[in-house]
Amino acid sequence: MGYAFQLGTAEVDVTPPLGLELSGYGYFLERRADGVDAPLIAQALFMEDGTGRKAVLFSADLIGFAREFTGRVRTAVSAATGAPPEAIALCASHTHSGPATIFLHGCGEVDPAYLEWLERRLVEAAVRAAQDTRPVTLSTAHTSLPGIAYNRTRSGGPVDDLLQCLFVETGGEKPAAVVCRFSCHPVVLRGNNKKVSPDFVGDFRSACMALWPGVKAVYLQGACGDLDPVVGGEERPARMRSIGRELAECLARLWPERVPVRDPEIEGALGTLALPFAELGDEPHEFARKADRLGPAYARFAQESSAVLIRKIAEGTLPAEDLVEAQKIRIGDVVLYFHGAELFSKPAIQLRERLGDRLWVVGYSNDFIGYVPDREDYEAGGYAAVNVPYMVHKPPYLPDVADRWVEKSARFLSGR
């Protein structure tokens, strides 16, 4: 294989100032950052194939991105680097120990000044990556890595434990960079934590550096909507380190088994998936009534959020469907599928069964939309199916939303 493919990397510190509210874990917790366990990092990969087609991929230690924010970043990065908007993807690790960057009712206030600064930092990272490209070759490998994550919604439920990696090589006995896609909520630290932290994702980067000094390690979050980390008897900081080490050591085992990416040309595409909402009647009133017995914070959340939906019902402004973004960036025979859902394992596994293990299903990207649960979670009246729609001020999806998501995603990825 020749060296026509060019790639550059850059990273910037996106750690928020102390005092900003952290997002995740529960309602009205007032978790304002009082220290930094480890800095939050945003990484940019700039890629250009032998025909001049370009792409930019971001990975950031954040809970998620909003569509409007992503649009502004895409516009600025496209103007600065020449990469088209359809080939610019923003991916969040979904750490719950970072600042609020998306609207989640009761789960942290978004700070506009931080978002403005973050936008500039991401553009800066993309420009630096584009200015530091080198000729590279790409190779890939994948394997199952059980034991890190478990299904938190039901015992014995499906677990998307596929680890996929892309090795970036410039010659020599180690990779120059590695991109890893895996599925596990970065919530080893719990809701009483007020220290800024990338959770185990930061330890993954450190472990890769220990194995391969100088390597740039990039983590992409998969389908972890129903997956939490297995902690066991370890202290939580130690468990973050051990998860990071297990992921890095798995990459090291895959390094000798890597195979070249075939015909590494870049193709980007954007699309829209229409996901139907359930029709609401008295459900918001009932949701607010039931919450009274679950504590004051939960009751406040339920009353405030249900009032929003009740008002929308009265105004006739509730939409019948959610029009959500889908993005494909193909690099040769590897297809990265970016979507904004907090996706359960089952639909991710089903989509790969249809399209193959060279498909990377990457969540929490570009436009956070909330959960896409499987049918079983609806039948159980689960948190993802019932509660979270109120957090984002939307009706719940229909119970077969995961099946619809798989079918519509397959059509988009197949060009139909």
Describe the structure.
With 416 residues, the chain is α/β, with parallel strands linked by helices. The protein is 31% helix and 26% strand. It contains eleven helices and 19 strands. The protein has helices at residues 67-81, 112-130, 200-211, 236-254, 283-291, 296-315, 345-355, 375-379, 383-386, 388-391, 401-413, and strands at residues 5-13, 35-36, 41-48, 54-60, 88-92, 134-144, 149-151, 162-169, 177-182, 195-196, 216-221, 227-229, 259-260, 266-276, 321-331, 334-339, 341-343, 359-362, 370-372. The strands form five sheets. Strands 1, 3, 4, 5, 6, 8, 9, 11 and 13 form a nine-stranded mixed beta sheet that branches. A hairpin with a 5-residue loop joins strand 3 (41-48) and strand 4. Helix 5 (283-291) packs antiparallel against helix 6 and helix 7 packs parallel to helix 11 (401-413). It is globular and about 65 Å long. The protein starts with a strand and ends with a helix. The model has no long low-confidence stretch (mean pLDDT 96).
Topology, please?
Elements (H helix, E strand, L loop, with lengths): L4 E9 L21 E2 L4 E8 L5 E7 L6 H15 L6 E5 L19 H19 L3 E11 L4 E3 L10 E8 L7 E6 L12 E2 L3 H12 L4 E6 L5 E3 L6 H19 L4 E2 L5 E11 L6 H9 L4 H20 L5 E11 L2 E6 L1 E3 L1 H11 L3 E4 L7 E3 L2 H5 L3 H4 L1 H4 L9 H13 L3
Helix pairs in contact: 1-2, 3-4, 5-6, 7-11
